[in-house]
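Handout, page 2. Input:
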Amino acid sequence: MRFWGIEPKVALFAFPYALLAFYLNSTFRLWTPRFPKVGAVLVIFGIALWLICYLQVSRAYRKGKLLTEGCYFRVRHPIYSIWGLLIIPGFSLTVGGLMLGLPSIYWLAVVKFIGDEEKALVERFGDEWREYARKTPRFLPRL
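Output:
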């Protein structure tokens, strides 16, 4: 598995939906509630968190280490969580219309492909990954 993990597969799954949603929204002038201010806050906050996580994981990746602290202390896949819970929903709330379905499409793709990434992590880190996976939830921290 490469550094980008399953993100290219997820993008290939979700991007056609986004294009179709944009097309249908503009063609049929679909009206649905939009919340651009809330959406912008979610996107900005999400991008800031994503950048922090990205810097942490890229440093660990270059060193060939499994990252289990920082952003990765509470969840195994914080970047997918940030995109699926903040950035994509924020964007969807800003655009409205059929774009509101994009977060669901994103999560369907992530859930479909995450096993591939975790299999590659088992192959690369073995028991260290298994122990980390056993005690750390995938996407949402335990309360």
